[in-house]
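Minutes, project check-in
Item: structure for the 86-residue chain
Input as provided by the requester:
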Amino acid sequence: EGDAVQLDRNHSYYDMVQAQLHISSVQYCDFIVWNKNDIHVERILPDVQLWETAIPKVQLYFTHRILPEILGQNFTHRILPEILGQ
């Protein structure tokens, strides 16, 4: 059907749903959109192909951005004096 409503696979909500499915290890998510006239329920299943592509990128981001900040607080040390007015 040309009028079928479904979550756009390129929308950030789709990525968020996929992240929650992967992190929670659940089999599906019911994505619900409503307004005063109608309700739409769409069952979203895990997208294995998306995660096979995303996981290496997430690991790289964590390794090069998040972990160094956790260990060395490089960003925090630079901005803290600005925030405190020192």
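Outcome recorded: DSSP finds three helices and two strands in the chain.
No further action items on this chain.
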